[in-house]
Design brief:
heterotrimer; A alpha+beta (about 160); B alpha+beta (about 800); C alpha+beta (about 260); A: about 160 residues; alpha+beta; Ubiquitin-like (UB roll); DNA polymerase, domain 1; 2 domains; 5 helices; 5 strands; B: about 800 residues; Aldehyde Oxidoreductase, domain 4; Aldehyde Oxidoreductase, domain 3; 3 domains; seven-stranded mixed beta sheet
């Protein structure tokens, strides 16, 4: 076992891990941050995406020890402390960008990384950027729409019904 | 009506917890003292177990105990929930499905041993040290070969590999053959409905717990129907009475059918928790899901359509081989039969239909319902053969469909079911209007200018949802009823807790069910909470699948709420010193008709629980009602879909340019959620048509065993869809007039896509391409173009 | 996965020393190695992370050349190489998905030499030089078949030095599930001649398509492949496409790469 220390959602945490402990295991099992999910074992689905030093990474394919000293942000750190959703999270609710919710944390973290890089993406750019995040419920329509809406663009031309 | 009642696109209340990482899925549950199990699974498709040596593994660090079949004395097999009777009146062949392999392994992934250890990694480490000596047997894979004389047998104690040979309607067989013999034109099509893997994003998880002090068992599991699991596992596998067995399905990350069934892993963790006096947890990896979750579709067969000189359908005949896999999953036998044969009339007045289905055991993962379940297979056969027939007789495929539409309702099909209502011309008109078929030629020329082949395809579908009338399914072999239940508990201050037997795993029941109750009473939906997924606090329910939740579970909810309203009116009449018959409920107030005297909802609820001024001599205090609803018929959602594609002639790659869906779901409670259901179904249907394929090699090894080879639809594979549900004919036999919307997209879209691709190739001069089997991968499309 | 000892040295010398132990393996981005370890297809006893060695990261332009540190993630190459070697930057920007590109490295990709990976095509078509802790290896000598390279046990790729062509482009026809190349072709035109590298297609891994190079040397134009014969023999056949299909795609994709290069 080795000691690992990192900042998660602004708080410094320390824990004991094996060499093989993945960051996602450290988050879920070590820290009780179960919002980050595991949906595959081949680094394809993206349910486990978190930000490490500001970059989207798949936490199922990163050793916890590789995140030593890093600044990690998870889905639990995306809303305001009082629970107010971020504009991106709110857009997902307003445009019904989630159903079962399992892919949602990774989807939100990837979309947040996209908007940080590219504040006004096109539809094509959103679809390409999200190619590493698989959703089985929504058919992506409302996810893409939510991301475009969160970037401040008018999404009425894409059809579909938003929440009242 | 409150603004968040029926018909409102209310925001989903589920979303906040999912968007902030505060959902509670089964894998998020960790009990004190919990141990972990890893299943050692067969890596060959078919073999005889000579010996299993666990001695070295048992000595590995952290190992608590290793179980094989020999350690499961008294544990029953996994039961099948439906018995199909064959065309000769005999019951299907039903093999035992042991929790851990007994004597033989029958598919890659069949569990041989279960290692329970302190940690999941220790359990897996130890599983690698188990020595299994297996005699390799030839794998049974091809369904026709499996039925040949002398083929190796999946189950030694059965007669061959045929589960059943089903004919429907058997009495029509000769009449159908006679109609074919004299028909003006017969169109024949051989096709494959590709095997799929449901792949909900949450892999399956099960946690077993046992309290020796009270002899109570608890199972937390990723299920679409916790009561069904309690029934099957308690009664048939482990012999635990219902009052000592609690099954909890908390937030569930999608199911699409694959989480209906009772699985061996659930029974094992429940059993082992008692054996070890410790909670036992199992979390599937995705790789494990590929070889242990029931798979979908996998039909191979032929369909023939007989027409007269004017294009009227005279008769329809199919011969289908349906893969059951190695064992019968919970509802497997019913999928290619009662959920398939009964839909072969489609939207059309075909007077004579005969469906033959041979269900076959093979050395593959069991096959069961997957989104649509039997109906996509029926729709695909029918809508493909109609398109082919139109081409052969030189008629516009749209006109050929119109000519044969059912237009009068109720309509008794020749395959048992009665369509209560519908308007297929209306959805078709709406579809063609949105899809702008008139403008297609201009778009095609523009594509051609860019070197692309453009095609336009349509398909219709009808499905039987709202499953199902219990007495009917009982006659058809179901070993359960298919009603639904609801308890409406009104609290003293007027807030309401609803307990439903339906189960939401993405459908948003917590929002829509609250809309229904709030609307009926006239209070804000925020006053209503929906509780589901726990057998300890919800009434007996059959769960969520078959687009049944609103049609059946919602109807139970309406029934229970109606009881509440009726009792509340009695209380109000007492408080208002008026006759009960004069009391009207409107906008959350009980008023005496024709007066300005009223008492509001909250006051009535308070009176029910603080009955100081209350008719105690004639009415019990309290305000809580339970109702069970058993539907009198199926519901029949129907619709018309159009797909426009471009084919890259150099690579064969198909791009979906537009996809339009015009559905008739009857009444709609939350339009936003309904559209979302259609979107998701379309993605899965387009996935089946273009991307997804579960493939075994000649030895029964799964070639598409991960997302590296099983092509899941991604955001950049799909377009924005154009979805419409304005052509609504409300269901005539349930109180909400709803039909169900969860599966439609996956049912109607595959033939629309394939029809569009064939159209593109035909228009480009590839006259020999009359069909391509799904998925229409670039390689397959290119090969079809260059066949000959 | 099996457990292992994890070390994260700060210098190349320490890394090379740590890799000298029995059962030691280098860990770059881990995008291939960690999934393989999860499947228990690989079980190193010691993982030596290269991500803490600052010298191994970065994109350094020089006249006519571009040097990329061995542990530079794809996302960094996609950004930093864009002004200097756009075709290479675009290739890097198409590998995997954004989260994979933030971790996966050029050295990791080349050391693994997956027959469907993108980077080998760029390295081979560019005639790049692979620098290791102990020597320099020309691209033509480096790739030795599917998952096989000229690297010795414990040898670490420190940098890849690319000569920048006059024009170049990479076109990937993606395998629909993994998004790796079903066929990918990198075309580069240098003063000395054209180089064409094909990935995803051959059972031998990435290879130079010399017939296409000769045709392009005569006339660098997209019309020149129609007469070439690409045999299906030795092409990969799997559930995503047969050998004949891949052979066909090589011509189609190569032509598209030339068109893109001429942009």
């Amino acid at each position: 076992m080795a000691k690992v220390s990192m900042k998660i959602n602004g708080q410094v945490v320390t824990g004991e891990v094996e060499g093989r402990t993945l960051l996602v295991q450290f988050l879920r099992e070590g820290q009780g941050l179960t919002g980050t999910h595991v949906g595959c074992d081949t680094s394809q689905c993206g349910a486990c995406v978190v930000h490490v030093d500001g970059q989207a990474v798949k936490s199922c394919t990163l050793l916890a020890l590789e995140a030593e000293g890093a600044d990690v942000r998870t889905i639990e750190g995306m809303a305001a402390p009082d629970g107010t959703l971020s504009p991106l999270q709110q857009a997902f609710q307003d445009h019904h960008g989630l159903q079962c919710g399992f892919c949602t944390p990774g989807m939100v973290m990837s979309a947040a990384a996209l908007l940080a890089e590219n504040p006004r993406p096109t539809e094509t750019e959103v679809r390409h950027y999200l190619e590493g995040n698989i959703c089985r419920c929504t058919g992506y329509h409302n996810i893409v729409k939510a991301v475009l809406a969160a970037s401040g663009q008018d999404v009425s031309r894409f059809g579909g019904i938003a929440a009242e | 009506m409150p603004k968040d009642g029926i018909g409102a696109s209310s925001k989903r209340r589920e979303d906040v917890r999912f968007l902030t990482g505060r959902g509670r899925y089964t894998d998020d549950i960790n009990l004190r003292g919990q141990a972990h199990v890893h299943f050692l699974r067969s890596d060959i498709a078919h073999g005889r177990i000579r010996s299993i040596d666990t001695a070295a593994a048992a000595a590995m660090p952290g190992v608590l105990r290793i179980f094989t079949a020999a350690d499961l004395a008294g544990v029953g097999g996994i039961p099948c929930g439906w018995q199909v009777t064959d065309r000769f009146g005999k019951p299907m062949q039903e093999p035992k499905h042991p929790v851990l392999a007994e004597g033989k392994v029958r598919h890659v992934g069949d569990p041989i041993a279960a290692v329970v250890a302190e940690t999941a990694e220790q359990a897996r480490d130890a599983a690698e040290a188990i020595v299994v000596d297996i005699e390799d047997l030839p794998a049974v894979l091809d369904m026709r070969a499996a039925l040949a004389e002398g083929a190796p047998k999946v189950h030694d104690d059965l007669t061959g590999n045929l589960c059943y040979d089903w004919g429907f309607v058997e009495e029509n067989r000769e009449a159908v053959n006679a109609a074919f013999a004299t028909a003006h034109h017969v169109t024949t099509l051989d096709l494959v409905n590709n095997r799929l893997v449901a792949n909900p994003m949450e892999p399956r998880v099960a946690v077993g717990d046992y309290d020796f002090a009270t002899d109570h068992h608890t199972l937390y599991t990723t299920s679409q129907n916790p009561h069904v699991i309690r029934l099957l596992m308690g009664a048939f596998v482990l012999g635990i009475p219902e009052h000592r067995l609690r099954v909890v399905a908390p937030d569930v990350g999608g199911g699409f059918g694959s989480k209906i069934y009772h699985y061996a892993e659930e029974a094992f963790v429940t059993f082992a928790a008692k054996a070890l006096r410790r909670p036992v947890k199992w979390t599937a990896s995705r790789s494990e899901a590929f070889i242990s979750d029931a798979q979908g579709r996998d039909h191979v067969g032929r369909i023939e359509l007989a027409l007269d000189a004017e294009g009227n359908f005279l008769a329809l005949r199919t011969e289908t081989y349906a893969n059951m896999g190695a064992y019968l999953s919970t509802f497997a036998p019913s999928i290619p039969t009662w959920l398939h044969g009964t839909l072969m009339a489609g939207n059309y007045r075909t007077p004579l239909i005969y469906v033959n289905v041979k269900a076959v055991f093979t050395n593959t993962v069991p096959v069961d319902a997957y989104r649509g379940a039997g109906r996509p297979e029926a729709t695909f056969q029918l809508e493909r053969v109609i398109d082919k027939a139109a081409r052969e007789i030189g008629m516009d495929p749209v006109e050929l469909r119109r000519r044969n539409f059912v237009t009068e309702f109720p309509y008794q099909t020749p395959v048992a079911v009665v369509y209560d209502t519908g308007d297929y011309n209306a959805t078709l008109d709406r579809l063609l209007q949105i899809a702008d078929r008139e403008g297609f030629e201009a778009r095609r020329l523009d594509s051609a200018h860019h070197g692309r082949l453009r095609g336009f395809g349509i398909a219709h579908y009808i499905e039987a949802c709202g499953i199902a009338p219990s007495n009917l399914v009982g006659q058809l072999g179901a070993r359960a009823g298919l009603y639904e239940s609801a308890t409406v508990r009104v609290n003293a201050t007027g807030s309401i807790s609803v307990f439903t037997g339906s189960h939401s795993h993405g459908q948003g029941h917590e929002t829509t069910f609250a809309q229904v109750v709030a609307d009926m009473i006239g209070i804000p939906a925020a006053q209503v909470d929906i509780v589901h997924g726990d057998t300890s606090n919800t009434p007996m329910g059959m769960g969520t699948y078959g687009s049944r939740s609103l049609a059946v579970g919602g109807s139970a909810l309406v029934k229970a709420t109606t009881k509440i309203v009726n009792k509340a009116k009695k209380i109000a009449a007492h408080l208002l010193e008026a006759a009960e018959a004069d009391i009207e409920l409107k906008d959350g107030k009980f008023a005496v008709a024709g007066t300005d005297r009223s008492v509001d909802w909250g006051a009535v609820c308070l009176a029910a629980y603080v009955p100081h001024n209350y008719p105690l001599e004639s009415l019990e205090p309290g305000l809580e009602e339970t109702a069970f609803y058993d539907p009198s018929n199926f519901t029949y959602p129907a619709g018309a879909y159009a797909c426009e594609v471009e084919v890259d002639p150099e690579t064969g790659k198909v791009t979906i340019c537009r996809f339009v869906a015009a559905d008739d779901f009857g009444n709609v409670v939350n339009p936003m959620i309904v559209e979302g259901q259609v979107h998701g179904g379309l993605a899965q249907g387009i996935g089946q048509a273009l991307l997804e394929n579960c493939v075994y090699d000649g030895n029964g090894q799964l070639l598409s065993g991960s997302f590296m080879d099983y092509a899941m639809p991604r955001a950049d594979d799909l377009p924005f869809y154009e979805v419409d549900h304005s052509c609504a004919t409300p269901c005539t036999h349930n109180p909400l007039g709803v039909k169900g919307c969860g599966e439609a997209g996956a049912i109607g879209s595959p033939p629309a896509v394939v029809n569009a691709v064939v159209d593109a190739l035909q228009r480009a001069g590839y006259a020999h391409v009359t069909h391509i089997d799904m998925p229409l991968t670039p390689a397959r499309v290119w090969a079809a173009m260059h066949a000959n | 996965m099996h457990d292992f000892e994890f070390v994260k040295p700060a210098t190349l010398a320490e890394a090379v020393a740590a890799l000298g132990a029995e059962g030691a393996q280098a860990l770059a981005g881990g995008m291939t190695l960690l999934p393989a370890m999860k499947q228990r297809l690989a079980a190193p006893e010691r993982l030596v992370s290269l991500t803490g060695i600052a010298d191994l990261r970065g994109v350094t332009p020089a006249p006519g050349r571009l040097r990329i540190g061995g542990a530079t993630p794809h996302a960094v190459v996609a950004r930093a190489a864009a002004a200097h070697y756009p075709a290479l930057a675009r290739l890097a920007g198409q590998i995997g998905d954004p989260a994979v590109r933030n971790r996966g490295t050029i050295g990791g990709s080349l050391a693994n030499n997956d027959p469907s990976a993108c980077y080998p095509a760029a390295v081979l078509a560019s005639g790049a030089t692979i620098h290791t802790d102990r020597r320099q290896i020309a691209a033509d000598d480096y790739f030795q078949g599917m998952f096989a390279t000229a690297l010795d046990e414990g040898e670490v790729i420190t940098a890849v030095d690319f000569p920048v062509p006059q024009v170049a482009a990479y076109v990937k026809f993606a395998q629909p599930a993994s998004r790796f190349a079903l066929v990918g072709v990198f075309v580069a035109k240098f003063a000395e001649g054209a180089r064409v590298a094909v990935t995803g297609a051959s059972e031998e891994g990435v290879y130079r398509w010399t017939e296409a190079e000769e045709a392009l040397n005569t006339h660098f134009a997209p019309t020149e492949f129609s007469h070439l014969d690409v045999p299906a023999d030795g092409m990969i056949a799997d559930l995503h496409g047969g050998a004949d299909y891949r052979a066909h795609l090589v011509k189609v994709i190569a032509r598209r790469a030339v068109i893109a290069a001429l942009g």
